[in-house]
Design a protein that fits this description.
Length: 396
């Protein structure tokens, strides 16, 4: 009986504290506080929000186990959690899966309840912990000091390092998915995942066509968001050219150790991967090499031995060397200023207007915002002509 009373008292205190917090927030006016005070409030509320989300999740999962959702007249536990949290059925199902997984990840559970990581971050850590249990503590440290994107990057890097290319490829193929739904505007929305050997050509086509449309819209004086042009490019992706053929420009770049390529499999320290897509088995690389529009870069870990461009349309070797990134990682291009990988353009560090050469040392990838800021800095430094038509950026 004593335990039951203590439990009930704990529940009462949580309910009262939750109601008190909501009442304080109902009267909250940020205009009454200084910037420093608002920053402190935002920090504290972010921590409380993460802790509250965890408490709600664990309580809902326990209620489902005990069948309490039926008392609300809802037979489906996923539908009950979705209604309670105001989420979709898919999100509610993921939340219940995370609650079950936390039983085997006590450190992640503790970090959640203390508010140092979010539910979304915990989901990534729990997924990784199933395959890499020794990495949980390190990933929790990353999550405490980074956003969700950086955490996912850390998980991906550790997965690449701890999984053989063959096993990784099998998992990628098994994890492919596509789902769609309608939003409040009636828009068709979707979410999916593709293995890198099919996903990279897919997004490359979209990004290239979106960049072309974006440039044309700016020239016409009616620019739209790049994302809008990407949506149009996606719709146009399945369309054929006038002669009935599909556009061939869907570059897939494989970087492979020269000796691994010759041998047919890679040894330790002999990378074989897709630019932007991670490691792949050498036999998969050779299967992909049958593609007529593939780029293959063979190297010995220090020097590039061969850059081969297959297909009817020639692409400069310089462009490929820039696309694959610096040796020895050859992990693809990203903005030299902010590390973004989407919507990149090539920019001359020393501008062409200042007689800068088009060379590997002088040309750098930059995202559109960073490219624009760099252009303004060059103009302020007197490196660009004050008037005249600007040079169109190279397509990604």
């Amino acid at each position: 009986m004593g335990t039951e009373v203590a439990t009930n008292d704990g529940a009462r205190k949580l309910v009262e504290a939750s109601r008190a917090l909501r009442e304080a927030l109902r009267c909250f006016d940020p205009g009454l506080f200084s910037g420093t005070e608002c920053a402190q409030i935002a920090d504290e509320l972010a921590t409380s929000e993460k802790a509250c989300s965890t408490g709600r999740l664990l309580a809902a999962a326990r209620a489902v186990v005990l069948g309490a959702h039926r008392e609300d007249g809802v037979a489906d536990p996923v539908a009950w959690v979705a209604r309670q949290a105001g989420t979709t059925g898919h999100q509610a199902r993921e939340a219940l899966e995370l609650a079950r997984a936390l039983d085997t990840h006590p450190e992640t559970k503790e970090a959640l309840l203390s508010g140092t990581v979010s539910v979304a971050q915990a989901r990534e850590i729990a997924k990784a912990g199933s395959d890499m249990p020794d990495q949980e503590r390190d990933l929790l440290e990353v999550a405490k000091h980074a956003d969700l994107g950086k955490l996912r990057e850390a998980v991906r890097n550790r997965t690449f390092a701890s999984t053989s290319p063959e096993q990784l490829h099998r998992r990628q193929v098994a994890a492919r998915r596509f789902r769609h739904w309608r939003d409040a505007l009636g828009m068709v929305c979707f979410d999916g995942a593709l293995p890198p050997e099919t996903g990279l050509p897919f997004v490359t086509r979209i990004e290239r066509e979106a960049a072309r449309r974006h440039r044309l819209s700016k020239q016409a004086g009616a620019p739209e968001r790049f994302e809008s042009h990407a949506a149009d490019a996606l719709v146009a992706l399945h369309e054929t050219e006038g002669d009935g053929r599909r556009s061939p420009r869907a570059d897939l770049v494989i970087v492979c150790d020269l000796y691994a390529w010759r041998r047919g499999h890679a040894h330790e320290g002999e990378p074989c991967h897709l630019i932007g897509g991670g490691p792949i088995p050498v036999d998969v690389a050779k299967q992909l090499a049958a593609d007529a529009f593939l780029k293959v870069v063979l190297h010995d870990g220090v020097d590039i031995h061969k850059v081969h461009h297959a297909g009817r349309r020639y692409t400069a070797e310089l462009r490929t060397a820039l696309d694959i990134g610096p040796a020895p990682a050859f992990d693809g291009r990203s903005c030299v200023d902010c590390r973004r990988t989407w919507g990149l353009e090539y920019d001359h560090d020393d501008p062409i207007a200042h007689t800068g050469p088009t060379s590997y040392a002088n040309v750098k990838p930059r995202c559109r915002p960073c490219h624009a800021e760099k252009t303004e800095r060059d103009r302020a430094a007197g490196l660009l002509a004050k008037r005249g038509r600007a040079r169109s950026p190279d397509p990604p």
